[in-house]
Amino acid sequence: MFGLDKKDSGLLLVVIALTILAPFILNPFPESSAMAQFNAGYPDLMQRLVIFGIFAIGFNILFGLTGYLSFGHAAFLGVGSYAGIWMIKLLTLNIIPAIIASIIVAGLFSLLVGWISLRRSGIYFSILTLAFAQMSYSLAYSVLTPITGGETGLQPKVSDPRIFDAALEEGTTPRANLFGMFMNDSYELALGGWVFTFNVGYYIAAALLIFAFYISIRIFRSPFGLMLRAVKSNQQRLNYTGVESRPYTLAAFVISGMYAGLAGGLLVAMDTQAGAERMFWTASGEVVLMTILGGAGTLIGPVLGAGFIKYFENIVSKINETILEAWFSFLPAGLTDFFVAIFYPFIGKGWHLTLGIIFMLVVIFLPGGLMEGGQRIANLFKRKSDKDSGAGKSQPAPAE
Amino acid sequence: MEAIVLQILNGLDKGSAYALIALGLTLIFGTLGVVNFAHGALFMIGAFCAVTLSRILTLSHTIIDESKTDFLGNPLKVEVPYIYDIFGEVLGNSIIDWAVPISILFAIPIMIFIGYIMERGLIRHFYKRPHADQILVTFGLAIVLQEIIKYFYGANPIPTPAPEVFKGSFDFGAMLGMDPNVIIYPYWRLVYFAFSAVIIGGVFAFLQFTTFGMVVRAGMADRETVGLLGINIDRRFTMMFGLAAAVAGLAGVMYTPINSPNYHMGMDFLVLSFVVVVVGGMGSLSGAVLAGFLLGILESFASMTVVLETLPGINQVIIYLVAMIVLLTRPRGLMGKAGVMEE
To answer: How many CB pairs under 8 A join A and B?
Structure first.
């Protein structure tokens, strides 16, 4: 299918099915049940899941393939956001110019950053990219306030020029749309006790995710992708064979910057605002976490990692003490208090603590992320069945 | 002239903090070859050692003072710190007043202990792993430490004042024979600078003039040969990690009166300290100190009004800009040695 082999087509189909059916999958509990708080099928969260999925796929093209650890990727997302919001303010509320502009501007910016940073590798590269991102963040907050809105950020206003659009009436809120379909419009389907929400913005973002995922498969399978892997496994040797590796790494850097720009543009399209905090270096750290958690260098890992982090961020931060007490209420009174006291630091505002611990455990024990974990479990079962047939085919295939 | 002296002075306290953190970072890097992203968290924990001690000292119980009454006419309840019961009111009061300097004694064993645990429990297992893994796991550790502190101390900055003697400022310009009231400098910043100079001098003297330091330096130059001579170099390197943690912690303790500590102060300093280390040259101790002061002073020069008028926003980016230029023109940093961290 589309020039993919059977396995990759299967993977693509899985992603397509997952994204299309996400409103069902993420809403497994009836609305009235006590578990309804674990439902994630509301538009805002679903949009975030796919947008950060795109961001992580892009980051993975750089980090997973070439091994260059960029600690400043959020800068491209932020720059993309600003480009997008300006298109919305100046041209039209239709999201197409915004998204195109955000990809192009982020691509150009990453070309500049990459051209400088890629002169060095290893830790120096990480620090250079970090320095660029921090610089963009500080500038966006201070001097560039006329362009970036400083601390308040940017929102579309009724009084914006928007040269392609008819003027909005006073008092209406400008809403982003795609040829008349508003991003925050949803269709709600009530089935029995369940309510499923189908959101326009989500499906647009999901379509782009599928497209982004397809491109990433093609890059992974191309000679270009092979060259990037060569950079990761032994750059020196590559240089000795007479290959100049920098054009390849730069191309990978720009591509992943454009992915970040696309994610930034989509964020703007969904919530029509942009702010400098998207560029802060913790945001860069977050995409690193997503990629590593899912499995760097694998195709689907980063998407899973992004989904995992964004889902639990929303769910875990919503659990509070009362809910914990309700869960442990079946225990004797003393034990209830004991368990509540133990779990309390990890829930609600303690989400970052949980995330940090999970992340450390993954880096220590599962450097390949969730994908490697899945593979190990699969191998465990396979070995059992192999023992009976006597074939010792337990050689773990590299995760893809 | 006055303006220049003032900016150099202003740069000194930030520069001292950068230099102390960067010194620890590069010490760890030079000995163990580990990139420690959790070093900023150690700085922050040091600061919270001071907070903790001042809280312990002010632990108090309530007594009813019959001689006074509150506005309702009831006997007044007075909080009395336990320390008054032990040392009497006068001495107790001055102990509370000097909580921050006293925390130095309190912080040293704690920081060495934390450093030891960190090295033995976690970082030891990462020597053979790629630098990216080391960065990632210490980054995770930094998040965890930071969140633990946030859980216990809350997210707001906690003001921790300096002793009464060092509060306020003095007229430095008048002392140098310049116009009075031009260069006003807070006492505590001078204390901080002197303190960090002592610490830095101490670390260098320790490495230069003791047998232990000599072995460590030999190990930094050629770990394998030192190991072959029958010296347990790993144990000494672990101790150096503890020392680096203590240096970062002390930097944090003394910094609390300048900036009220909050849980993410370590991260704010860490990014800059890394830049400092890179500018100074990975693994070069003197480079880290030099670059720390240099960048601190440069930063304060960049925030002068005259400079800001010509180049708006330069104070925000000057450090990163310098780092980029240094990295691209002198890849080893200002004083980096050949063969350290070269890919």
So the answer is: 106
Task: Check if A55 contacts B (Cβ < 8 Å).
Answer: no
Region B33-41 average pLDDT: 86
Residues 248-277 of A with CB under 8 A from B: none
Tens of pLDDT along A217-246?
999 999 999 999 998 888 888 889 988 888
pLDDT at A55 over 90: yes
Tell me the mean pLDDT in the region A338-342. Answer: 78
Task: Give the pLDDT confidence of A135-153 residue by residue, as tens digits.
Answer: 888 888 888 878 888 778 8
Mutate to test the interface with A, among B35, B125, B139, B148 (most CBs of A within 10 A): B139
> Cβ separation of B331 and A120 shorter than 8 Å?
yes
Chain B residues near residue A127 by CB distance under 8 angstroms: 274-275, 278, 323, 327
Mean pLDDT of A40-50: 84
* Chain A nearest C-alpha distance from B30 (Å): 14
Task: Report the pLDDT value the prediction gives residue B188, as an integer from 0 to 100.
Answer: 85
Q: With CB atoms and an 8 Å threshold, state whether A127 touches B275.
A: yes
Answer whether A176's CB lies under 8 Å from A272's CB: yes
What residues of A are in contact with residue B136 (Cβ under 8 Å)? Answer: 69, 288, 292, 359, 363
Tokens standing for A345? 């630091």
B135 vs A: CB within 8 A: yes
Any CB–CB contact under 8 A between B316 and chain A?
Answer: yes
DSSP string, A333-344: HHHHHHHHHHHG
Residue B338 pLDDT > 70, yes or no?
A: no
Q: Delineate the domains of chain A, giving CATH numbers in brackets.
A: 6-316 (1.10.3470)
d(CA B20, CA B23): 5
Q: Which residue has the higher pLDDT, B202 or B272?
A: B202
Nearest to B323 by CA among A188, A71, A129, A200: A129
Cβ–Cβ gap A281/B271 under 8 Å = yes
Q: What are phi and psi of B228, to 5 degrees?
A: -65, -25
Q: What is the β-pairing status of strands A186-191 and A181-182?
A: unpaired
Tokens 């769910």 correspond to A315
Q: Which pLDDT value is given to residue A56?
A: 94
Contact B147 A367 (CB under 8 A): no
**What percentage of chain B has pLDDT greater than the value 90?**
13
Extents of the domains making up chain B? 12-264
Q: Do A292 and B321 touch (CB under 8 A)?
A: no
Q: Touching check for A356 and chain B: CB below 8 Å?
A: yes
Is the minimum CB–CB distance between B200 and chain A shorter than 8 Å?
Answer: no
Write down the H helix ranges in chain A. 6-25, 43-66, 74-90, 95-117, 122-141, 145-148, 200-221, 223-233, 235-240, 246-271, 281-294, 301-316, 321-327, 333-343, 351-365, 369-389
Q: Is B275 in contact with A345 (Cβ distance < 8 A)? A: no
pLDDT tens by residue, B85-103: 777 777 877 888 888 888 8
**Which residues are CB-neighbours of A269 under 8 A, at least 6 positions away?**
A84, A88, A95, A98, A99, A176, A183, A201, A204, A205
CB atoms < 10 A from the CB of A177, how many?
A: 19
Q: Closest by alpha carbon to A63, among A216, A267, A172, A166?
A: A216
pLDDT at A210 (0 to 100): 92
Q: Which residues of A are less than 8 Å from B131 in CB distance?
A: 122-123
What is the per-residue DSSP string for A131-153? HHHHHHHHHHHTTTHHHH-TTT-
